[in-house]
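Reopening closed ticket. The problem is back. First fold of the pair:
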Amino acid sequence: MFDELRKYEPTFRTVARIGIGLLFWVHGAQKLLGWFGGFGQDGGTVELMTRFGAAGIIEFFGGLAIILGVLTRPVALILALEMLIAYFWAHVPRGGLWWWANGGERALLYCFVWLYFSTAGAGPFSLDARMAAAAGAGAADPGLGPEPSGGERPGGGAPGPASGGGAPPSSGPSSGESGGGSPGSPST
């Protein structure tokens, strides 16, 4: 039964991305614009040159990018990092490391959700997918559609340089490349 639902994954991922992005965007709008009840007890806005101002900017524009599905993977990674920092900066001092004691459940939940989208991508119903299709790379990005049967990644085999995974195992160094990098260079 659940295998039949797999065909709806791209649609469900899109609905989740837009819904969760909207929830996150509202937090930025509260901080920056005073909308939806504003920020704090008085329902006002935050000063931009504070940590709450930085959080508002990240949440407002990051949430908007997630809703639209543009630059989803890098934006989601930034949002996950913001939520991890928020957890340790704002929640841990309130009640220790445990989320049930410090009220940090929402920050951790958003962190994990954004980590998922940083690896899964926006899905086929996004500006990322439209830009990839216009560039002719839509089938090469595993985050743009459902995984084909048999467990292979679209484009075949291991991730290539375009997805940040290095060269496929069957290809050796091309002219001008060294196989191991220069001494002292950071490894990935």
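Second fold of the pair, where the issue appears:
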Amino acid sequence: MSEVLLFHHALGLTSGVLKFADDLRQAGHKVHTPDLFEGNTFNSIEKGLAFIEETGFDEMRERGVRMADDLPHDLVYAGFSFGVLPAQKLAQTRPGARAALLIHSCLPISGDWSFGPCLTASLFKSTQWTMILFSSAKVTSSCARDR
């Protein structure tokens, strides 16, 4: 199974994000859930975005990128909404990336990706969620719910 680095959304590391990580663990994956907000959670996107703006979007993204420093390189990088910023940057720039799971967001696709030229993009959408999966490996299982 895969090892996943999962980044939270602008509300912080909420119980919904942790439940999603637990679902992945129950499916056999090893999942890391760093807290970019150092324990802060918010009850509105506006409050979460205000917190991000205080620190700076670039700094917050780089904080997420640094979270991967002590982890193996062959990870699946995943993020919900705001968490897509560090997940996508790592997937595009860190050698060894296995896949990118970008949920509720995606930045413009440009440049080379660390998993090379065999890139598959899949868009999954329902009334509750949108997930974009980029991978060069065969995907054996995936799940997403409104979190």
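Update: turned out to be a display glitch only; the data is intact. The longest strand covers residues 120-125. Helices lie at 15-26, 45-55, 57-66, 84-93. Please close again.
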